[in-house]
């Protein structure tokens, strides 16, 4: 039998971008705050049009385990629309929405939520015929570090002609931060590709990682859909779900479908060689226009970094330029579709012979080398010191990449301040 099903992970209904949208006008804030709900509505609309045999939701329906009633109502109402069309749905709960308490809402009978021990596999039907056997296990708490994949029973291509599907929320060992949007994600139910292949399933419906990626294809498939809608500048590019085409209990194709209603991005603008602020503004405008073009005219939220070696280094660090950036942000935020500049940072450096400094035996050379990793012991000691400070003050730890970038920036500023004849 030929049919298709939808696989949609990491809805994060009700996700808020606290602090990220500070200073944004009301209509921009509303567009961001409602984006996860509108992306979910796009998924349901697509299901109403395409009539898949069933829909899989492998974890993180909600952004937290608290009683966000609006998020729970939105999910229930979406499932009710599927139920009205006789489209069953299957759910596991992940680290953001563990199955640790009673849900205040009752979902339609056609929606099965796997419990924390997995339970019996569920049979999905299409046009009155059984077509798939589905396995799953929900998180009992926000942190699950054991390998859940190994708890799934080994299966083989079913003699009864049913597709064998396993739903799993977790990360591939060694790729725990792949598009997750979390600074220190850690391991969640970590697994290896060999773990998945050895279990014998036809399709692994994966959740947790917010970037779309196909880990396995062919005899066995393992797919991350990515999140349904981005919620921070770290979650760049198109977001959505996948539609899986099946024929005779064999996966024939997996197609990514966009569902997002606005895009998030981070852009680094190289100002090397620019000599006027007019050119800087033109470079920013070109970046904004390109972002709108690749997002198919969706509104966007972007984080900008101004970089490069330029004689304008001092000028773009002055309060007057910050005022101009505020004006640009408000102008782009008022357009339709809007692009809201969530923040900008300056990582330019003045026009100095940096190579000559690097090869000298000066204090500046030492500081520059230190900031660029010449002293591995210095770099290795920083995370422990930061962790100690974070433990005392409950601060959020920066990532290794953020630490390295901050040190590089500090090295450049120190050399600039110590270099005679350069305005800092």
What does this structure look like?
- It is a single chain.
- With 424 residues, the chain is of the alpha/beta class.
- The protein folds into two domains: 2-258, Purple Acid Phosphatase, chain A, domain 2 (4-Layer Sandwich), CATH 3.60.21.10; 263-418, no CATH class.
- It contains ten helices and 15 strands.
- The strands form three sheets. A six-stranded mixed sheet has the order 4-3-2-1-11-12. Strands 5-6-7-8-10-9 form a six-stranded mixed sheet, with helices on one face. The chain has a three-stranded parallel sheet with strand order 13-14-15, with helices on both faces.
- Strand 2 (55-58), helix 3 and strand 3 (89-92) form a beta-alpha-beta unit.
- It starts with a strand and ends in a 6-residue tail after the last helix.
- Mean pLDDT is 88; it is low at 176-184.
Uncertain ranges: 176-184
Please provide the ordered H/E string of secondary-structure elements: EHHEHEEEEEHEEEEEEHEHEHHHH
Q: Helix count, per DSSP?
A: 10
The secondary structure category is: alpha/beta
């Amino acid at each position: 039998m030929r049919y298709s099903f939808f696989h949609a992970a990491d809805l994060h209904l009700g996700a808020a971008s606290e602090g990220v949208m500070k200073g944004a006008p009301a209509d921009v804030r509303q567009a961001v705050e409602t984006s996860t709900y509108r992306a979910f509505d796009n998924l349901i609309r697509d299901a109403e049009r395409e009539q898949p045999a069933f829909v899989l939701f492998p974890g993180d329906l909600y952004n937290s385990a608290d009683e966000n009633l609006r998020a729970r109502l939105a999910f229930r109402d979406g499932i009710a629309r599927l139920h009205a069309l006789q489209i069953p749905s299957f759910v596991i709960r992940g680290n953001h929405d563990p199955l640790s308490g009673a849900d205040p809402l009752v979902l339609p009978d056609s929606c099965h939520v796997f419990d924390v021990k997995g339970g019996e596999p569920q049979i999905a039907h299409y046009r009155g015929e059984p077509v798939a056997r589905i396995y799953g296990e929900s998180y009992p708490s926000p942190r699950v570090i054991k390998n859940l994949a190994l708890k799934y029973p080994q299966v083989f291509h079913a003699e009864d002609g049913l597709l064998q599907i396993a739903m799993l929320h977790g990360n591939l060992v060694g790729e725990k931060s792949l598009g997750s949007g979390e600074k220190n994600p850690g391991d969640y139910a970590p697994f290896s590709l060999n773990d998945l292949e050895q279990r014998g399933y036809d399709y692994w419906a994966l959740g947790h990682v917010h970037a779309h990626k196909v880990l396995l294809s062919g005899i066995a498939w393992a797919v991350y859909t990515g999140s349904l809608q981005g919620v921070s500048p770290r979650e760049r590019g198109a977001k959505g779900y996948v539609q899986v085409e099946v024929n005779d209990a064999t996966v024939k194709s997996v197609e990514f479908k966009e569902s997002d209603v606005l895009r998030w991005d981070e852009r680094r603008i190289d100002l090397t060689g620019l000599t006027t602020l007019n050119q800087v503004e033109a470079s920013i405008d070109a970046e904004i226009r390109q972002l709108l073009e690749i997002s198919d005219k969706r509104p966007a939220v972007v984080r900008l970094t101004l970089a490069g070696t330029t004689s304008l280094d001092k000028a773009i660090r002055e309060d007057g330029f910050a005022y101009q950036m505020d004006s640009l942000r408000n102008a782009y935020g008022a357009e339709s579709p809007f692009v809201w500049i969530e923040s900008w940072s300056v990582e330019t450096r003045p026009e100095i012979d940096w190579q000559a400094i690097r090869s000298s035996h000066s204090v500046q050379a030492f500081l520059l080398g230190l900031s660029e990793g010449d002293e591995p012991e210095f770099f290795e000691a920083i995370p422990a010191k930061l962790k100690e400070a974070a433990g005392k003050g409950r601060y959020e730890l920066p990532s290794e990449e953020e630490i390295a970038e901050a040190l590089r920036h500090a090295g450049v500023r120190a050399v600039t301040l110590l270099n005679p004849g350069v305005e800092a």
